[in-house]
Amino acid sequence: MTDTRRRVKVYTLNEDRQWDDRGTGHVSSGYVERLKGMSLLVRAESDGSLLLESKINPNTAYQKQQDTLIVWSEAENYDLALSFQEKAGCDEIWEKICQVQGKDPSVDITQDLVDESEEERFDDMSSPGLELPSCELSRLEEIAELVASSLPSPLRREKLALALENEGYIKKLLEIFHVCEDLENIEGLHHLYEIIKGIFLLNRTALFEVMFSEECIMDVIGCLEYDPSLSQSRKHREFLTKTAKFKEVIPISDPELKQKIHQTYRVQYIQDMVLPTPSVFEENMLSTLHSFIFFNKVEIVGMLQEDEKFLTELFAQLTDEATDEEKRQELVNFLKEFCAFSQTLQPQNRDAFFKTLSNMGILPALEVILGMDDVQVRSAATDIFSYLVEYNPSMVREFVMQEAQQNDDDILLINLIIEHMICDTDPELGGAVQLMGLLRTLVDPENMLATANKTEKTEFLGFFYKHCMHVLTAPLLANTTEDKPSKDDFQTAQLLALILELLTFCVEHHTYHIKNYIINKDILRRVLVLMASKHAFLALCALRFKRKIIGLKDEFYNRYIMKSFLFEPVVKAFLNNGSRYNLMNSAIIEMFEFIRVEDIKSLTAHVIENYWKALEDVDYVQTFKGLKLRFEQQRERQDNPKLDSMRSILRNHRYRRDARTLEDEEEMWFNTDEDDMEDGEAVVPPSDKTKNDDDIMDPISKFMERKKLKESEEKEVLLKTNLSGRQSPSFKLSFSGGTKTNLTSQSSASNLPGSPGSPGSPGSPGSPGSVSKSTSQMAAITTKGGLVGLVDYPDDDEEDDEDEDKEETLPLSKKAKLESS
C-alpha cells in the first residue's frame, strides 16, 4: 500500500512511561473473524508483517491528540499509540472507531477513562453538560472552585474540558489576565494561577494545543508566575524573552520547523521550571504533556535529519579553519543538543540518525574540534563523542583503524582522547573519568563483532597496543623511574589510579596482548613503585593490579614475578603498615591467602624461600604458616622421590584408583577362583606383594636422618652469619619500630626448590608442619589389607572419605576380597 495518508508509526508505553517505537506501516480497519469484530490492522511497510491487530472494543477509551495521534489502553498497563503521517488518515481511522462505538467524531475521547460509582454516574447523567460561569473578573473565585472540584471525577473532568473547548474559554481567561495585571489585582492573579494549573491537570491535548499556540503560550506562562504560596511572583516571561535567546547557527528555512523548536523549548520550560512538582496523585495527570514534548522532539529530529542542505552546511562550517571561535562554539553546542534530542528516538530511528551523521563526517569533524584550544568546545565535543561511542563503538573503532593507515600516532582520534584525559585541568578530573569510561567501552571485547572474514577484537586490539598503549602508560612510566613516585600530589595520584583501573581491566579481558606488553615493558615493576605512595587509594590500585595478574594463575606471569622479585614492594608495604588493621593489611593478606588456597606451587616456594624471615612472626592469621606448611610438604616430595612415589602408590590403592590399575585388578579378580582363596586373603598386585615393611621403612628413616642433619647445619650457619641475604638483588626491610630485619633468599639457579644443592627450610619446632613435631606421626605405620600406609597428610582427609564412600557401594563379595583383614 502506497497511500501516505494511512502511513503510521506504532508506539507502546513502557514501564518508564516512555514511548517505544514498534515499527512503521500502513493502517486499515476491517472485520477480523478470529477477534469477532471490527479491528485496527497495521502491516509493516518493509515486509508486510503484522505489527498490530487490535479489536475496536465498544468500551475502550480512545483519545485523539495533536490531530495526528490516536492513543488507547489495551489492558491495565499496556498503552498503544498510532502516529499518523497525515491528519487526513488520522481523521479517517478516528471516524471508523467512533462509528463502532456510536460516538460523534468531533469528540477527542470516546469513553470515560475511570469507572465511577453508580451514584456519581446517575448524577452526571442527569445533567448532560457542565455550565461554566461567565468569564468575568468578579467570578474568578467561583471558576477556580469549579475547576478544583471537577478534578477528582473523570466524568466531570471530561465535561469541564469539553466546555472549555467549545466556548473558547481559555482565550477569555487570558484577556482577564491582562486586566488583572494592569490593575495589579493580586487576588485575581492568584485565582488565575489555580485555574490554569487545573486546566493542565485535565490532561487534554486539545486544550494544550490552544494554550501552547503562538498567541497564548506566553500569557499562560504569565498566569503561572503568580503562585499564591510565594511571596513574590516569578519572572519566567522575562527570562524567556530577554535571557534565553534563539540562535540559528545555520539558518532554518522551514517556518514550521522553526515554530516547532520554539514551542518545544517553551513547553519543556513550563514542565521543568514553571509547573510545581506534581504530587504522587497528580503525576499521571501530566502524561499527555510528556507525550506532547516527546512527539515534538521526534518530529524536530526527523525534519532536521531530512534536510541534507542544513547538515552539509553545519559540518562544512565546523571543520572550516576560517570559522571564528564563537561561531564554532555555537555550532558544536547545536550538534550536542541535536544528539541529545536523538536519545528520545527508538533504536531503529537512532540507528538511522547516527548513520546519517557518520555519512556527513562527524568523526573527522570531532577530531578537528578536539584538537582546538577552547576548553568549552572540547567539552561539548567530548559529550558528542560519548553519544557515538555508547551507541555504536564498532563505528568508532573502524574509523580509527582506517585513520591509522594515513596519519601519525600523535594525531589519531583515540590518542587525542587519551591526551585530553591525561591533561585534564579539573582538580577532581571529571572529564578524565568520562573519557576513561569511553576508552574502556572501546577496548571492551564484549561489544566487539566477529564475522566470517575478520575478527574485530584481534584487529582492534592489535592496533591499540601498537599505536595507543604507549600514550596511555606514558604518565605511569614517567612517574616511576625511582624507588618511589616522582610526583605524589593528589591530582597525579588520581590520574595514575584511572590509568591503573583501565590497565587492570585490560589484564582481565585481553589475553596475550596485555601479557606481552606487561612482560616486555616491565610494567608490573613500575606499577608496584606506587605501593610507596602516600595516597592509600593509589597504593591499593597498584596492589589490585598485581592481584588481578596473580588471579589468572598464568605461569608466564608467575615466572616474570619470581625472576624480578616483584613480591618485594608488597612485603615492604605490609611491614611498613605495621599492626594497623586496615584495607591495605587485609588486601595483602588476601593475596597471599589466594596463593595458599589455590596452591600455586611456584609462588609459594618463591615467597617462603625469600620472605619467610620477615613474615614468620605474623601469627594473627594462619596464612603465612599455612604457606610454610604447603612449602614443606612440597619439599618433602621433591627431596625424597621414593617416599613420594610410595605415598602415591598407597593413595592409589587405598583411595583413588586410576583406570589402568582398576582394569588390572578386575582382570586378576575374574581370573581368580573364589574357592581357591582363603577367607580374609586380600588381592594385591604382584608388585606390592613383593614389598615388605623393611623396604618401606628404609627410605623413611634415611629421610628423617637427613632432615635432622640439615636442621643442625642451618642453625650453625644462622648463628655464625646472623641473617644472610641473597647475592642479587640485595633486599633489606626495615620495621617502622626501629628494629631491622634482613630477609634471607637464594637466587641462584641451582638452589631452586627440590634441587640437590638447595638448603632446607625446616619449620620452627612450634610451627605447623615442622618435621620435629610430626616425627612420631610419621613413624606410625598402619597395615590394611596387606598394604603398609603412612598417616595421611591433613589435606588427604576429604579424598579418604570420598573413596571410603565409593568402597561402601561395592557388592559384599567384592568388598571381602578388597578389605579382608
The largest beta-sheet arranges its strands as 4-3-2-1-7-6-5
User: What is the average per-residue confidence, as pLDDT, rounded to a whole number?
Assistant: 77
User: What's the number of helices?
Assistant: 37
Question: What level of helicity do the residues show?
Answer: 55-70%
Can you tell me the residue ranges where pLDDT is under 50 for at least 5 consecutive residues? Answer: 113-127, 672-697, 717-800, 804-821
State the name of the first-level CATH class of the largest domain.
Mainly Alpha
Structure description:
This protein is α+β, with helices and mostly antiparallel strands and 821 residues long. It has 4 domains: 2-99, Pleckstrin-homology domain (PH domain)/Phosphotyrosine-binding domain (PTB) (PH-domain like, Roll); 137-293; 296-537, Leucine-rich Repeat Variant; 552-639, no CATH class. 58% of the residues lie in helices and 8% in strands. It has 37 helices and 11 strands. The strands form 3 sheets. A 7-stranded antiparallel beta sheet has the order 4-3-2-1-7-6-5, covered by helices on one side. A hairpin with a 2-residue loop joins strand 10 and strand 11 (787-790). Helix 3 (140-150) runs parallel beside helix 6 (186-201), helix 15 (362-370) runs parallel beside helix 18 (413-422) and helix 29 (601-615) packs across helix 30. The protein is elongated, with a radius of gyration of 41 Å. The N and C termini lie far apart (92 Å). Residues 671-698, 726-821 are annotated as: Disordered. Belongs to the SMEK family. One of its GO terms (cellular component) is nucleoplasm. InterPro entries: ARM-like, ARM-type_fold, EVH1_PP4R3, P4R3-like_central_dom, PH-like_dom_sf, PP4R3-like. One of its GO terms (biological process) is DNA damage response.
